[in-house]
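The methods section describes the discrete structure representation at length, but only in general terms. The central task, working out the structure tokens from the amino acid sequence alone, is never made concrete. Nothing conveys this as quickly as seeing an actual entry. For illustration, here is how one protein appears when written out as sequence plus structure tokens:
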Amino acid sequence: MSTRRSMLWGCALSAAAVLAPLGLAQAQAPYPNKTIRLVVPTPAGGLPDTVARLFAQRLGERLGQPVVVDNKPGANGVVAAQALATAPADGYTYLVTDGSMFSINPAIYKNLNYDYQRDFMPVSLAARAPLYLAVHPKVGVSTLQELIALAKARPGALTYGSSGVGSTHHLTMEAMKSALGIDLRHIPYKGSSQSVPALIGGQVDVAFSALPSLSGFVKNGQVRLLGNNAAQRSSQEPGVPAIAETIPGFDFAPTIGVFAARGTPASVIERFSAEMANVARLPELVQSLNSAGIVAVGAGPAEFDQAIQGEIARLAQAISAAGLKTE
């Protein structure tokens, strides 16, 4: 009797050993199996929001689950960072933001309760959005080299507008001034909606802005484009040189990417990153981004991390050149 009982127990254990992996596989449904949320630290219509929404629909089609955008503006990115931090690190909540949240904010704002290295994992460098240096015709220059020569001949006489102190527009110009040894006076405005009209009206001589804000005025001859702040020329305006052609290593084009909470499984990040890359190659998405002055990229975690680290280093130098202090 004991022998028969032993045989039965052995068969039961063997069956359990065979069936256990099957049960585990059934319990662990393939990723994704529910709605994915993209948290954005800016209001609707901003740069990260535009990128998130253009990618979301196509990601949902490829992943077979809804991908929704959740705007969480406020406190210099803290509200959005908290939304990601309080969600499970399971790949169903991501942060979509531009690099300034990690390269500019920590350098000029005290007591931010988020940290790039501690709290986030790079997933995908979705896009870049180069800014263009535009000049009013009254200045009488047609190239970047002519502007540099004029600024050196008349130190402090020229003015530039920006979308605010500490903005990418401001820091790009401060980095350019420092690298070239020129002096232009800063006139800060509250956003490009004010700085661009000031340029068109001749209240300032030059300004950096996104292409959609300038293209109509360029066509009408009201401003000229002298360069862009990316590492290379953009397909949007291939005839406009990159400032990096004059200043090697110059790269201040805003980056927009996807981040996961620290601790998210590597397999999940790999899957989402791969789909981001696939979507970034879709012709209709590329066209939609281009019309908004944005260039699709779709780079993976390693390249994205390298880009963020480089951006942090370059902007730290620009912040120092601008004389900004932590608030």
Observations:
- The first strand starts at residue 36 and ends at 40.
- The domain at 36-129+254-322 is CATH 3.40.190.150 (D-Maltodextrin-Binding Protein; domain 2).
- The two ends are 82 Å apart (CA to CA).
- The chain is about 45% helix and 20% strand.
